[in-house]
């Protein structure tokens, strides 16, 4: 392919290169900023070469305004939101993909419709509702709110993975006396583990990066790292270098998860299982 | 396993007045069937005739709209697939892609809590029976089509079911492999002695495998019989046209006495009637002869198959075929006359298509 159309592939590479540069630039700039002194940050024109310092990291990790407790907050909220999302989304998506029941179409649409609501319109109702049940500034409160938008998203994503599995596979398992639950466990879930990995990551990322609900519904006890970074921005000044250092730290676990999960996001696990593949 | 044990382990099957509707369309219009223990029973018919639906009803994968299903005279109509002690080979094989061949074959045993030592032994035995014992460590994706098919077979036979269901199991194999596997399948069934219900649209497959055949047309069983019976005395004109390659020739004629008059030419038949009537006259391509006196026809095409040849004719409105292992000294475009031995004819009612 490359040999036949060198110009075409060169053009594609150039476009990809430009796209990548646009994408990567803020991250690189943030990384550089996190090693600068506040003076260097504000230098104009911006400097590319400077004497790097670890002061910002020392400050955001060990200093008076350490974001470590906030990273913990983020981890607790994101993990629990992800866990409960997947716990409910997997069976729900399986049901939507497979079982025949009245109003199936309507319920499928409802799941999507919840995604169409602008989240900002929900903040005040959510605030009032949580206040009523004493859920403001609690882990369970924020987790519950995250579930309201991550669950429909996860269900919607998982349904397509379940629908890719041929009916006959399940029928074979039923004839093999596996029953519905064991069919799900032994036959279906292993085949959608790629989908489960992808969905889990998306849900975790959404929760980890969430800011708006966290800032309104959180508080002194529950303050995820996205909110905590705001501490470095005050009326008098913005400590850009520390914001950058905090952002880099906040990104680290997400990047690690991404690298680790990449191996697990394998497509084509069902290739060769069903020949012909046609459905009657 | 001795023959006697095998017979005891296999089930008789009976279905009574089974009706299946999908919404407003009726797929099965009241099907009755009785299958003997140990029988190799083939459901044959064109696609959409209801044969696969009938098989799925036997498996319990499809609920009936009306009617009953019995196994060994026990009503199993409402039983779940797993409660019927049946095994099925799907057209797509439906192997579990994330499991090895050994895990696939052992799965039905694992599900009923068989100790792993026994599972391993049974898996080895079943795999050896179908000739894939050397492939146990592979996954289905690493197998050829024929090997996948054997793996599906092994998974079905491993738990020695009372009833063995096969849904067009050979249709995804190439022609040569299909012929080989057909023979092996027949030997395997004889060896296991399990009652087998086999769905196919390939009449040649049905003829070679079956103890008995049920011919499906438009959601009804039109004929049940041995392959020989179905071939030699088809009960309707549809069955006659469906069984046999090339298909049976049909011409319209008037039957009176021991003569059918086709396009003004009297042709002698063995059957005699005292009530003159309009009929469809059917003659198998093997029974048609080029003779001095008979139905005039023009040769349209000669297909030489090496060991035999198929000659196509135009006779008035009709197109006829003759199959012979003797190469005729004729060529395309020749005008000839066709006839058949009295007794080779099949007569069907011109209106209803029923055999006369």
Describe it for me?
The complex is a heterodimer of chains A (280) and B (356). Chain A has 280 residues and is mostly helical. Chain A has 2 domains: 6-60, no CATH class; 67-232, MetI-like (MetI-like fold), CATH 1.10.3720. Chain A has helices at 6-34, 38-42, 55-62, 68-98, 104-116, 123-132, 139-163, 167-175, 179-188, 193-209, 212-217, 225-228, 240-262. In chain A, helix 4 runs parallel beside helix 7 (139-163), helix 5 packs across helix 7 and helix 7 (139-163) runs antiparallel to helix 10. The longest helix of chain A is centred in the first third of the chain and has 31 residues, at 68-98. Chain A is globular and about 70 Å long. Chain B has helices at 3-9, 51-59, 101-110, 116-129, 145-157, 175-192, 203-209, 227-232, 237-242; strands at 13-22, 25-35, 40-44, 66-71, 74-75, 86-89, 163-167, 195-200, 212-217, 220-225, 249-262, 265-283, 288-291, 295-304, 309-315, 318-324, 335-340, 345-349. In chain B, helix 4 (116-129) crosses helix 5 (145-157). Chain B has 2 domains: 3-235, P-loop containing nucleotide triphosphate hydrolases (Rossmann fold); 249-349, OB fold (Dihydrolipoamide Acetyltransferase, E2P) (Beta Barrel), CATH 2.40.50.140. Chain B is elongated, with a radius of gyration of 24 Å. In chain B, helix 6 (175-192) links the parallel strand 7 and strand 8. Chains A and B meet through helix 8 and helix 9 of A and strand 6 and helix 5 of B.
